[in-house]
Amino acid sequence: MPGPAIAPSELRRRYRAVRAVTETLCAPLLTEDYQTQAAAEASPPKWHIAHVTWFFETFLLKPHHPDYRAGFPGFEVLFNSYYESIGKFHPRNQRGHLARPSVEDVYRYRRTVDAAMEELFDLLEQQPDAGICGFIELGLHHEQQHQELLCMDIKANFAVNPLKPAYRHDLPRRTVESTRPMRWVELGEGLHEIGHVRGSGFAFDNESPRHRVWLDRYRVADRLVTNGEYLAFIESGAYTQAAHWLSDGWAHIRRHDWQHPLYWERDGQGGWLEMTLGGWRPLDPHAPVCHVSYYEAEAYARWAGQRLPTEAELEVVLAQQPLQGNTFEQGFLHPMPAGPEGQWHGDLWTWTGSAYLPYPGFRPLEGSAGEYNGKFMCNQMVLRGGCCATSLDHLRASYRNFFYPHDRWAFTGIRLAGNC
Amino acid sequence: MPGPAIAPSELRRRYRAVRAVTETLCAPLLTEDYQTQAAAEASPPKWHIAHVTWFFETFLLKPHHPDYRAGFPGFEVLFNSYYESIGKFHPRNQRGHLARPSVEDVYRYRRTVDAAMEELFDLLEQQPDAGICGFIELGLHHEQQHQELLCMDIKANFAVNPLKPAYRHDLPRRTVESTRPMRWVELGEGLHEIGHVRGSGFAFDNESPRHRVWLDRYRVADRLVTNGEYLAFIESGAYTQAAHWLSDGWAHIRRHDWQHPLYWERDGQGGWLEMTLGGWRPLDPHAPVCHVSYYEAEAYARWAGQRLPTEAELEVVLAQQPLQGNTFEQGFLHPMPAGPEGQWHGDLWTWTGSAYLPYPGFRPLEGSAGEYNGKFMCNQMVLRGGCCATSLDHLRASYRNFFYPHDRWAFTGIRLAGNC
Amino acid sequence: MPGPAIAPSELRRRYRAVRAVTETLCAPLLTEDYQTQAAAEASPPKWHIAHVTWFFETFLLKPHHPDYRAGFPGFEVLFNSYYESIGKFHPRNQRGHLARPSVEDVYRYRRTVDAAMEELFDLLEQQPDAGICGFIELGLHHEQQHQELLCMDIKANFAVNPLKPAYRHDLPRRTVESTRPMRWVELGEGLHEIGHVRGSGFAFDNESPRHRVWLDRYRVADRLVTNGEYLAFIESGAYTQAAHWLSDGWAHIRRHDWQHPLYWERDGQGGWLEMTLGGWRPLDPHAPVCHVSYYEAEAYARWAGQRLPTEAELEVVLAQQPLQGNTFEQGFLHPMPAGPEGQWHGDLWTWTGSAYLPYPGFRPLEGSAGEYNGKFMCNQMVLRGGCCATSLDHLRASYRNFFYPHDRWAFTGIRLAGNC
Amino acid sequence: MPGPAIAPSELRRRYRAVRAVTETLCAPLLTEDYQTQAAAEASPPKWHIAHVTWFFETFLLKPHHPDYRAGFPGFEVLFNSYYESIGKFHPRNQRGHLARPSVEDVYRYRRTVDAAMEELFDLLEQQPDAGICGFIELGLHHEQQHQELLCMDIKANFAVNPLKPAYRHDLPRRTVESTRPMRWVELGEGLHEIGHVRGSGFAFDNESPRHRVWLDRYRVADRLVTNGEYLAFIESGAYTQAAHWLSDGWAHIRRHDWQHPLYWERDGQGGWLEMTLGGWRPLDPHAPVCHVSYYEAEAYARWAGQRLPTEAELEVVLAQQPLQGNTFEQGFLHPMPAGPEGQWHGDLWTWTGSAYLPYPGFRPLEGSAGEYNGKFMCNQMVLRGGCCATSLDHLRASYRNFFYPHDRWAFTGIRLAGNC
Fold it and tell me: From the CA of B377, how many Å to the nearest CA of chain A?
C-alpha cells in the first residue's frame, strides 16, 4: 500500500541509507555468526542479507530493469522466503545448512543488485513510475523488517552459546533509580476509525482499508510492565498454577517446562541475568519485561486483574502520541526503563488481545506481493507499537505486527488495559 | 449465564427429558462401541455418558444435596474433562484405554445420580434457589453439547472401521432433484448489538455481555455451499495449488495429504461416497458439504471470489430468521439439501472468519465453571448456527461454537459472505 | 519346522485342548476388556482370539479344506498381523479402534473355523498329510504364543487403569521366608551344539539348523535376580548414574524418565507395589524382578560385576535341566521365589546378551509362513527359558524369544552369568 | 589396547604427521563450511578439529603434563563428545549452533595443545612411560577416525546444498571398461581365532580378547557389489516389494520414502548422478555401490540369493589378504572399480550380518576411556574392511566399525557371502 509518490531521487537516497543500515548492523559479525541458525524460526544473518537483496532483484530488477541479467544461479530458490507464486524455496528450518554461497558471495550479490538498482533509479529519474517507486518503497520497508529480524535472530544465536558471547560490548544503557509509576490513559466510548489513512505515507496492505470500529470506554497503561512487576508474578508461583493460563498456554508451558521469560537465567545468587545484544546483564527491575509469549502476557494481565488491549484500542491511543521513543536510532537495542513521559512507541512490541485477521474489505496486493501479509492471517496475534529494533521511519500507529501465541524470540512486551 | 428463573418442577421435567435423549442416542450401540476411541479428539461414548453425570454430581449434588455421598471412587478423576480447579483428570487421548468402569457400571452411576437429582428437585420445590436452578440448566445444556459430541464421536469411530458399519440403518433422508440457487441477503451498514440479551433465556457466559459493533454493508448467502459446488473446487485442482490457501492451511493439507473433506472416499467408479451416521452413502451433490476445516472453508470462499462472514455479521442475520431448521429433532443426523426457504439454523455449524476471543467486558462464571469456556479463547475460530445434531431448545442466534482451524470431525460447513 | 508326524487324531485332541485354553484364559474378561488397547504394542484380547483363528483359516482351511468358504468379509485384512505376502493389514497400533466385529461375532468366527477344522481332521484321518499336520502344529504353537501375549496385554490394559482392577482376584501365590542364595553352575570350554535337534519334536524355523559353537569356560546363576537384589541397584542411585548404562539405554531411561521396572509403584509408605494379573500387590523381595528391559538387565549385571549369558551359553545349560518350572500350568501367572532346586525353565524369559540373528544356514519356512520369524532378525535381543505364562508343552531349551532392548511389557527377567 | 611400546621420538613424528593430515584435509574449506551441520549425525568440521584436540588435552595434558594450564574456558564442555565421566557435553545435534569459538580460535587451541604436546614428548624422551605413550597412540587413532568422519560429514554438508558445490574439484578417479566379474573365495569349516593378536600393534579395546569361533564352510565374494548390480535391484522394483526386506527395514524405507542409496539423484535423462567429495558425477556402473544402509545391504543380498558375511567370516578372509587397497592415501576419497586382483581392504566399509556386541571376556579400558567403545554395544551392526577415507596405518583385519542399521552417511558398501 504505497504512500504518495516519492521522487526517485529521494527514493534513491533512502535506498542507499536503508541498505547501509543493514550492513552496519552486520559489521560486528564474524563469518561464523553469519552462517549460524540456532533455532528453526531464526534465520542465519547471511540469509537475511541475501533475501532482502533477492526481494529487489525479484520484484524490481527482473520485471523493470530492461537489461538486468540474473547472475547468481540458484539464488532465486535459496533466498525466496515463502512466495509460492514465485517458485520453490529452501525449507526455512534448513537455511543454516547452506554453507554456500559464502558470505563474500552474498555481499557480491548485494553489490551487483545495488549497482543495477542505481541504474533503475537513473531510469526512474528520466521516466518516473509511481508503481515501481511504490514497490521500491515496499522493498525498503521489507528490508527494515529484516533489520529487526536480524537483531532478534542474532540474539537467538548468541543466547544458546555456553561461551556467552555478546553481539556488541559497547551498547549504551539507561538506568533509573526507581520504577516510574504506571498511570492509566482513559478513553470514552465511541465510533473510531483505525487503519492506514490513504495517502498519508507508507503502510503495508494489511493496515487497510481504514474503517470504523465501536469501542466502549477503556483505559490503557502509559508504560510497559517491568521486570520487577513480572518477577512478582513468577514469585507468586504463577507458572505452576493452571488458574492463570489459557488452556493452550498451560499445555505449552508445561510441555516446554517454561518457568520464566526467554533469555532469563538465574545468576546463582538469588538474582537473575538477562541475555541482551550487549551480552548477559543483571536483570533491571525497572526496565520492561521482554521476550514473553502471548500466553505469558495474557496470564500476567489476568493475574494483575487487568487485560491486554485490543489492537483497535491500542491504535487509537498510539495515534494520539508523538511518534518517538526507544527505537533503533537510540542505539540501545534493548528496552529501557520508562521516563517521566511514559512509554508509547518503541521499546517493545505489545501483545494485543486481537487475532491477526483481515480488516473489513481487506484486499491483498496484486501478484506475488499479495503473499506478503494476507496468507498469514490465521493462528497469530497482533502486536503493536514497534520496538527498540524498529527504525522510526518504518513505524506508524497503524502498524500491525503478528506472531504465534507461543513465539517469544521477538522483542515483545506487555501493556495493560482495562474497562472503566 | 442462566436465563430467568425456571420453576423447579419445569426444570425436573427438562432434566428427565434431556437425560433420556442421551440414553436414546446410545441405544443402538454395542458395548464395544461404547468403549472405543478412534481419534484423540473423540471420546468413547462411555466416557461421555459418565462425564455429563459427573457434571451434575460435581456441581450440583456435592455442593447442594445435603445427604449426597459419592459412591464411585475414582470417578472424580476419570470423568473430569478439564477442570483444573476441581482436581486431576485422566488424559483426554487415553480415555479409550479405560476398560473399567464397565458400561453397566456407568449406567448404574447415571441412575444413582439421577435418583439423587430427583431428591434435589424435591428440595428445590420446597425451597427454590435460582442459583442452583441456573446451574442445573447449565448442566442440561452441557449434556446437550455432549449429545452432539456423541454424534460426532460415534461417527469418527465408525468411519475408521474397514467393515463399514453404520450407527443406524434406518435414518431418514431428504432428496431433491436439483440444487436450490443461492441468493444473497444484504444488510446495510450500522451499529448493531450482538450477544446474549440479558434475561432472555439461557446462554453460555461467552455470549455476554451484549455489546455494540459497527458493521459495514455486507451480504450473506441464504444457504450453505453444497457438495456439488465443493467438488468443482476439488476438480479445479485447488488442493494442489498454494495460491488458494492460508499459509498454515497449505502446510497442514500437505503434511496430512488432504485431498477432500473428511469422510469422503472415492467409490471406484468416478464418484464419491460419504460416511454418515446412516453408513456410507453416495455423495449427494445438492446437500451441504460437511466436515471441512476452517482452512478448507476459507480457501473455498477465496476460490469462489467471496469470503466467510464474521461472527457478528452472521449473528445479526441469524437473529432475524425463525429458529427452525434441520436440527436434532428432525432425525436426519446429517445435513440435508436446502429447501425453497434457504438454510439458516441447523444443518451445519458455519465457520466464520472470527477468532474465538472474549467479548468486550466478558467475565467468566464464578468458580470452577469459569473454566467452561473462557480458557479456550485462543487459537480457535468461531462457528455459528447449530447443526443437524443440535437440539432446537439448545440453540439460539448468539451461540458461539469454536474449533481449531484444522478440526473437521464436527458437523461443519461453509456459508459465503461478501461486501456490497 | 514341524517335528515328527503326529497322528491326526492326536493332533485333533491337541487342537481342542489348545483352543480351549485360549477361551478359558479370556473367561474373566468383560466385553470392554476385550476391546481395549492401552499401548501400541499390546493388542486387544478380541484381536488376539480372532487372529489365531485367522491363522488356521488362512494357512489351513483356505488352501487345504476342499469346501471351505470364507464367511467373514474383511477379516482377512483386520486379523492379518503382518504377513505382507498375504495382503494388506490393519495398523497394529489401531487395533483398539475397531469396535466391530463384536466380541460375539469373533466367537462366532472361532466356532465356524473350529467346525471346519474338525472336518479337516476328518479328512486327515482318512488321508494323512504330514505337511498339513505340520502346519496345524505350527498353528497350535502360534496360538500358545498368543496365550502368552494375552497375559501380557491384559496386564498392560489393566495396569493403566486408575481404578486398579485385577484380571483375577483368585490367583494363587507362593511365598518364602528368605531369598534362596544364588549359586553358579560352571561349564568347561568346548565345542557345543545348539539349536533344534531335527526330528525331536516341534520347533520354530529360527531354532534351526542345529550347529556348532565354541564356548569358553563360563558360569550361569541357578536362579533369577530377585526384587530385593534389584532394589539395591535402584537404591544405589543406578538410574541416575550414566556409568552403568549402555549409551542407548541411558538415553532411553532419561527420555522416558524410567526410575524402576514397569508396573512398580511406590506404596506411599516407603515400600513398593507391583502390578500383577492378580492386581496390585506389595513387592515380594524374594521373587524374581520382572518387566525389565534389556537396558536394565544389562546395567544391573554390570553393576553387579557380572554379565548376561549369551543365548548359546544359556541353551547349553537349559538343555541339561529337566523341563519343568513355574509355567502356565502352575496357575500363578507371575514369577515366584526360587525353591531349593533353583530356577531354570519358566518364571521369566531371561534376557541374553545375544542379538536375534539367523543361525548359520538358517532358511525360513516356504511361502508366507516364512514371514513368521525371519524378517524380525534385526534390532532385537534374544530371551530364553519361557515364563509363567508359557505352556510347558510349548517350551523347549532351543526356544528363541526376542524383543527390542527397550521392551518390558513381556514377562522378562535377569539371570547372571560370568567367565571363570 | 595399545600395541608394543613405541619410542617417544617415533610417536612424536607420528603425532606431527597425523595432526598435519587433519589440517590438510580441512584446507579446502571456507569458514562457512567449517561451521555447518546439515544433519544431526554429522558434526561441523570446526567441532571435529577442536574435539580431537580436546582429546589430547583431556587425556594427556591435564593428567600428565606437569605445567599444563587449560586456557580455553568452556571448551571442556563444548568439545567433549560423549564422555559422561568427564562431565557435561553440548548436545550433538546442536553443535552447528555454536558460532563461537571461531575457526581461528579453534586453530589457536590446536596450536596451544600441539605446543604442550611437544613439551610432553620432551618429557617422555627423558622418562619414557608406556602407559602415556599408549594413550597418545590411542589419541592418534582417534584423530584418524575423525579424519574419516570429516570426509563423511563434509560430504553430508555439501550434498544438501542446491548449488551443488564440491569439496574438491581436482580429485582423481579410476575408470574401467567393464565390471570385473565377481569370484568366490571359499573357506573350509573349522575353529578359527579372531580378534586382536596381543602385542601385534595397535587395536581398540573392542577387538579383544582374541578368541576362538567355529565357522562352517563358507564363501565370500572377492569384490564389492557394484552400482550396476545394485541398479538391477532397484529396477526390479525391490524398493516397493516387502518380500525382500527385514520388517524394520521395510518400515524405515517407507517412512522415509527411500528409493535408492543416499546421494543418488536422477539426472533427468534416464540416468543417475552420485554425490562425491569431488562433486556430483554420473554414476559409474562398475564402481562399488556406496552409502547404503544395513537394511539395503541385507535386502540386496537376499534378493541376489546370497547373504552378508558375519564379522568372523570376514575377518578370517581379510587377515589372509595383503593390507592394501583404495585407502585414504590413494587420494580418490571415493570407492573405485575393482581391479583384476579384486577388492579387500579399503574402498568401503562392508556391512556384516553381525550385531556389535562384546567379545567373550571383553573388558573396556580403565577410566573414562572405557566409554570409547563399550557403551555402544547395542542396536548397531559391525562393518569391516576400512574405506577410501581410512588411513592405511589405521587399518587392520580385526578392526570393528559399527553403525545403526539405518545409517548410510558413512562410506558403506556390500560384499556378498554364502554357504557352500
Answer: 7
pLDDT at A122 (0 to 100): 98
Query: What rounded mean pLDDT belongs to chain B?
Result: 96
Q: Are residues A79 and A207 in the same domain?
A: no
Tell me what the mean pLDDT of segment A100-108 comes to.
98
Dist. CA D56–CA D143, nearest whole Å = 10
Note whether A89 contacts B: Cβ–Cβ < 8 A.
Answer: no
On whether residue D174 sits in a domain, the answer given is no
Sign (positive/negative) of CA torsion A93, A96, A101, A107?
Answer: positive
B161 at interface of C, judged by CB pairs closer than 8 A: yes
* CATH for C401: 3.90.1580.10
In the numeric block, the cell 458439504 is attached to B289
Same domain for A104 and A253?
no
Check if the beta carbon of residue D396 is closer than 8 Å to that of residue D201.
yes
pLDDT value, residue B420: 86
Same domain, A141 and A25: yes
In a domain, residue D172? The reply is: no
Enclosing domain of residue A12: 8-160
User: Nearest-CA residue of chain D relative to A38?
Assistant: D97
Q: With CB atoms and an 8 Å threshold, state whether D213 touches C214.
A: yes
Task: Give the DSSP per-residue string, A363-389.
Answer: -PPSGGGGGTTGGG-SS-EEEES--TT
User: ipTM of the assembly?
Assistant: 0.96
Please report residues of C whose CB lies closer than 8 A to that of B38: 94, 97
Residue A169 has a CB neighbour count (10 Å cut-off) of 9
Query: Are residue C190 and residue C93 in the same domain, yes or no?
Result: no
Say if residue A211 is in the same domain as residue A154. no
Q: Reply yes or no on whether the pLDDT at C4 is more than 80.
A: no
Burial of A23 (0-12, 13-18, 19+ CB in 10 A): exposed
pLDDT higher than threshold 60 for residue B116: yes
Tell me, what's the pLDDT at A1?
A: 47
Domain end, chosen from B112, B127, B160, is at B160
**List of residues 6+ apart from A121 with CB closer than 8 A:** A8, A9, A11, A12, A15
| Interchain proximity A32–D100, CB inside 8 Å | yes
Phi, psi at D389, each rounded to 5°? -115, 10
Out of B85, B216, B243, name the one closest to residue A85 (CB). B243
Give the count of domains, chain D. 2
Kindly tell me if the per-residue pLDDT of B364 is higher than 70. yes
**Measured distance CA(D3)–CA(D198) in Å, rounded:** 7
Chains in touch with D (3+ beta-carbon pairs under 8 Å) read A, C
Which of the four pLDDT bands, split at 50, 70 and 90, describes residue B4? low
User: Are chains A and D in contact at 3+ CB pairs closer than 8 Å?
Assistant: yes
| Residue B247 touches partner A, C-beta closer than 8 Å | yes
Yes or no: say if B133 and B124 are a contact pair by the CB < 8 Å rule.
Answer: yes
**Alpha helices, H only, C180-277:** 227-235, 247-255
Q: Same domain, yes or no, for A367 and A236?
A: yes
A239 lies in the same domain as A386: yes
Instruction: Check residue C180 and report its DSSP letter.
Output: P
* C-beta separation of C208 from C196 below 8 A: yes
Tell whether C146 and C68 lie within a shared domain: yes
**Do residues C342 and C223 make contact, with C-beta atoms less than 8 angstroms apart?**
yes
Mean pLDDT confidence for A367-392: 96
Instruction: Note the pLDDT tens digit of each residue in D325-381.
Output: 999 999 999 999 999 999 999 999 999 999 999 999 999 998 999 999 999 999 999
Buried b (16+ CB within 10 A) or exposed e, D48-73: bbbbbbbbbbbbbbeebbeebeeebe
Inform me whether the C-beta atom of residue D215 falls under 8 Å from chain A C-beta atoms: no
Closest CA to A205 of A150, A143, A137: A137
Residue D309 in domain: yes
Within-domain flag for B104 = yes
Q: Is C90 on the interface with B (CB under 8 A)?
A: yes
Cis peptide before B209 (omega within 30 of 0): yes
